[in-house]
Write a structure and sequence with these properties.
The chain has about 200 residues and is mainly alpha-helical. Helices cover about 45% and strands about 5% of the residues. The protein contains eleven helices and four strands; from the N terminus they run ββααααααββααααα.
């Protein structure tokens, strides 16, 4: 059994965080605010307290958004949660992030149409990302991301690109390294977002 808190090296990438380490915590760059916005984008009633209840967690005196973000560092909390009906079920984090990016963030529009959508592939009624096509799309658009500040600005196209990579990396753990590596090649801000070290 491996210690998921220890950095893991996969080729040139090393990180203690998901998706590089599938059972590791989420990268610290994924904020409480983004997590809450993602779940509410998926369904407006999915507020932090409701989601915590689906996990069997009571926030106590602490802010529910903060408790939820910390809870999502556990892989089982990021997975879909069954409820008695569709209204009480919890979607997986990767899907909530995807819905936020694709349907609600203007900063993600170009990233989706130019880079992500051409790399998406349907398989068994699910949408997956072809990592090689994703890398090719990033390379075509490199001029847009060549001067991304470190850290990546909130609400930027660069943040949208990093979040798409995170969402698909969580969905496709066997291809997470290739997906994250494609984004990391676009600059230090992306490497920092994912907690990558050489």
């Amino acid at each position: 059994m491996s210690d998921s808190s220890a950095p893991t090296s996969h080729g040139a990438l090393s990180s203690p965080y998901a998706p590089i380490v599938p059972d590791g915590p989420l990268p610290p760059a994924l904020s409480e605010t983004l997590v809450s916005r993602a779940y509410r984008a998926f369904r407006p009633d999915l507020r932090a307290k409701h989601l915590l209840a689906t996990l069997g967690i009571k926030p106590g005196q602490e802010q529910a958004n903060r408790v939820l973000r910390r809870a999502l560092d556990r892989p089982e909390a990021r997975a879909a949660g069954d409820g008695d009906d569709a209204d009480s079920a919890r979607p997986p984090l990767f899907l909530a992030l995807y819905v936020l990016l694709k349907d609600h963030l203007a900063s993600a529009d170009h990233v989706y149409t130019a880079i992500v959508q051409p790399a998406e592939r349907q398989r068994d009624d699910m949408t997956f990302l072809d990592a090689a096509m994703f890398r090719a799309g990033i390379e075509r658009e490199m001029a847009r991301f060549g001067h991304v500040p470190d850290p990546i600005p909130e609400g930027s196209e660069a943040e949208a690109l990093a979040l798409f990579a995170l969402a698909y990396g969580l969905l496709q753990p066997d291809e997470a390294v290739a997906i994250v590596d494609a984004v990391a090649s676009a600059g230090a801000g992306f490497r920092r977002f994912f907690g990558l070290t050489d």
